[in-house]
Structure formats: structure tokens, C-alpha cells
Amino acid sequence: MAQRWFGFLLLLLVVLSVSIHCCHSIQEDHSHTLVNEDQVPSEDDDDLEDLEEGMDLDAQIASDSFSSAEALAATKVANVNDKDVERVIEKFEFVLLLGYAPWCTQSEELLPEFTAAALRLSQLGNPVLLAKLDAVNNPSAAAQYEIQGFPTLVFFVNGTREQYLGGYSREEIVRWVRKKTGHAVTTITSKEEAESFLSKNVTAVLGYFETLEGPEHDAFIAAAKAEAETEFVQMTVAEVAQIFAESSILPPLIAVRKQEPEHFTTFRGSFSIEEIASFVEINKHPLLTVLNSKNANMVYGSPMKLHVLLFAEKMDYENVRSLYLEAAKDFKGKVMFLVIDMEDQEFSRPMLAVYGLDTNKPVVAGLNNEDGARYFLESDFTVDNLKTFAANMYAGRLPVYYKSEPVPAENEGLVKIVVGKNFEEIVMDDTKDVFLYVHAPWCATCEKVGRVFEKLAKHVQDVPSLVMAKCDGQENEHPLLLEVPNYPSLLLYPAGRKSSSPIEAESKATWKKLLIFLKENVAIPFPVSNDDEVFSNAASRRETAELDTLINDEL
Ligand SMILES: *[C@@H]1O[C@H](CO)[C@@H](O)[C@H](O)[C@H]1NC(C)=O
Ligand SMILES: *[C@@H]1O[C@H](CO)[C@@H](O)[C@H](O)[C@H]1NC(C)=O
């Protein structure tokens, strides 16, 4: 079972990384909206002068597609290519490289953010160089730096590659880069600075100390450096701390401040880096997070492994948001409450498919991101039901969800239809030998094998101890069906031995060979009808082999 769960997690990761990186838009010329002017880093360096070739700064600033602020920002981004990228990366202590595709919508959305971040970082005197690479037209550089999807951000420290773990808005890029370049904490000294900081509405970890030294302060700084995306601020002035806490507080104190109802959470642990880090990890997420391709890494990387997911279209979400928020409050730091916008189909459809769902109606599901177990809210969307759902999930009391087609109303055919929900009843029936044919809609050989299976079923229809059954393995799940090696699979679950693994038959066999297989492997022997006489003594391998030469293969 573990193997299949692992497969599921991989699938989820693939789904996520595909949605993060894949650009499905058709090739169009959006170059007029891109920052496509060649630019140089704001660094006097002769080696890099050839970067300036072809640059037309005047034209760029004059162009009416740029406001002057944008034009200024654009000058802070170096345009690199196959020839010079390596040299640029080697040259600078810190480089944030953006690999983009000119026709990619997501690249197009990121570029202005990237450009604005470059300007801001430059204003702050940050030593980083932000560089962009048209990965489509510079394939060897793209290959060298493993830029496979667009957009991709890669960070380099003294030429050594590091994973970019920040967000994709200008603020998030700036915050992440500042942390990586040694500005882990901002010191706030006046009421004005405090108010201006708070007006940005960002989540912040605040440290209020008597002095900016000592072991407690050291631990705070170390935690700030280790954390990738949250703003850390420190202060020693009581009036400043009071503005953040909205009440008077005493040092030393660490807290997370967010722009939401329960916005101030005080740290109660001992001042070790581990405890501070874990406190921040658990408390930095908002009560509700709209999960999308941009923050998926952060959400799936969180130590909070239990997720409640609301799939909804915008209108529906507006209607239920307050209920959802109400339920989320009780599970702060325990269960992450996520919202997935069903209108973002590229992202939501694969996630829904994991639950076997294809719907526009709001649904609530659960995920344990540690073991891949899925859950499903069957009851109505009420605050109480949501709370019970999350509480049971937290307590490990929720039945794991398996996807299933509806149980067929009529199931009296020669080959019974098995779905997730009746698997237990039909296949696990200890009094019967069950021969199960597992197929998938996309499997090319399944149809043929299905016909052979039907033929065999006709042949054994009078055997009361034997059930012939089939199951669409794509649409139906059951813990005991998890290890279907491939499609089609023919699996025998012998009577009285349901707890051990099924016996697999060769799926390319003729119906006669399958009959021999059944006779050799069923727990309850069945008598031989006239037609079968030829097989009655076929127990030994030698005779079976002889038979093979006599039987006219149908396949
Ligand atoms: C990069 O290399 C320089 C020169 O060797 C060194 O002084 C600096 O500390 C290095 N930067 C980082 C972040 O390791
Ligand atoms: C911050 O939040 C307040 C109140 O919720 C809002 O009026 C303001 O526009 C927000 N500011 C920013 C920069 O988002």
C-alpha cells in the first residue's frame, strides 16, 4: 500500500510542479508587454560592457509602453543570454536569475513584479543582481541551469545554485532576496516606522527585546535567517511594540502578527531557534489560504500536514467564506484550511481528479500530506460539520476516502461489476473464489482481454463457488486494490485467503489457459463440464504444455 501512496504523492507533486511551471498558452507575440530591452546591471564593470550591445535605453524610456518608473525599474534587470549568462553568474556574489518564455502568460505576469523588485532592491542598496534569460531563444543556457518550465527563478551565491523558495509578487521577491543577502531582520525604531510598516498588511514576526543582544536575541536572528518568506521585525522601544501588539507588552517577547481577526499570537516557548522556527512555521499561514500554483510549494512544505480543501467557484466562495473562516479558527496551527478556485481549471482539475471528482459544485475534501490519505466531507456544508470533519481528521478518526463509481443498481450479469464501494462485499467474500479483471479506459489491450474474460465467464457460469468480476481501476479505489501492477490485470482472490495478495494470471492468455489457471489456483475445486474434459488431467505442467500446442490460440 505504501508504494501506491508514494505514487500518489509523486502524482500530486507532478501535478503541482506542472501547474507551477507549465505554460500552456499558444505562442503569441506579447513582446510589447514584456520588458524586452537589453539592459546592464547597475555596476561599473568593463567585463560586462558587451552586455550593452544592442541596448537602446533612450528608445525604451521614450516608449509609451513604459511609465518612467517602469523604465527605471527595467534598467535594473540584466538581460542575459547563452553567451554571457555564465560570466554574469560567476561575476556577482548574488544573482537571481529568471528563466522565462516570451509567449508564456505566467512569465508575462511575473516580469513586471521581477522588474519592480529589482528597482526596490537597488534602492535599498542590495548587492543582488536580477537577471532574466529568454530560455526559449537561449536553449543552451536554459539547459545548463536546468530551466525547464517558465517562469523559473534560480538564486546563485558566488556562482553556486540555490533553490528559490520565495513568492512571486514584488514584495515577496524583495523579502526573500533580502533575507538571503544578510538582511534577515528590519529594526523599527519609531512610531511612524511602525505605522508605515503595518499599513503594508504583511504577516510579520516581531521580536521585542530590551537590547538587541544576548542569547534570546541571537535565537531570534537565527530563526529569521532560517525562514525564507516572512518578514521579521525587531524593536526595543515600548511605544513601538505597543503599536504592533495593540496593548502594552513586556520584553523579551516574540509574536506573529497577521492582518486577520486573531492577528496577534504570542510565542510561549523557550527561546531556542528550533522552537521559534516551529512557532513561526505554524502561525505564519493565514487562517484561510487560497491555494494556487504560486504558493503551493509553501503550503506543501509546511509542517502542518493536515489540509481541509474547499473547492469552489468565486461566487460560491463569497457565500461560504465566513462559515469556512469560522471553522478554521478552531484549528489554528493544527489543520490548514485551503481554498481552491475552481475557475482556475488548470490548477483545480488535476486536484479534483485525485478525488475522482469532476464537478462545479463546491466540495470539501481533506488531505493528510504526510501519508497521502484523502478524506471527503459527505455531510452538508455547515460550520459544525466542518469542525467535526477537521476534528476527526486531526484525531485520525476519519475514514479514508476512496474514489468509486456508483454501485450498479443491477449486477446480475455473468461478469459482476465491482466499484470501490462494493469491492469489500463482492471481492472480499470469503466463501467465494473471485476472479477479477481490472481494466482502464485508456488501455489498448483491455478490450481484447475483456472479450476473452467474458468467454471464460460463460464457461464457468454454473460454478457457484466462483465469481467472475471486473473493475475500472482508474475510477475505483480500495486499499486492497492499490497494487494493481498494470492494466489489464487478472487477479484471483481465493476463498478463505482474502487477506493475502491475490494471485495474478497472465493477462495475454486464451480463455482455455485461464481456465487451467483457475483450476490450479481456486480454493474451492469445481467440477468439470463436458467441454472441459480435455483439461481434467491437465494438472501437470507437461500436459499443460502439450495442450498449448493443441489449442488454437484465439489471440
Ligand atoms: C562570496 O565570495 C567572497 C569572496 O570569496 C566572500 O568574501 C563572500 O563571503 C562570499 N559570499 C557568501 C555569501 O558566501
Ligand atoms: C490594509 O488593510 C486595510 C484594512 O483591512 C485596508 O484598508 C488597506 O487598504 C490595506 N492596505 C494594503 C496596502 O493592502
TrEMBL record:
EC number: 5.3.4.1
Gene3D superfamilies per UniProt: Glutaredoxin
Protein name: protein disulfide-isomerase
Annotated PROSITE patterns: THIOREDOXIN_1, THIOREDOXIN_2
Keywords (A to Z) from UniProt: Disulfide bond, Endoplasmic reticulum, Glycoprotein, Isomerase, Redox-active center, Repeat, Signal
Chemical reaction(s) catalysed: Catalyzes the rearrangement of -S-S- bonds in proteins
Gene Ontology BP term (one): protein folding
Record family assignment: Belongs to the protein disulfide isomerase family.
GO function term, MF aspect, one: protein disulfide isomerase activity
Thioredoxin domain span: 66-182
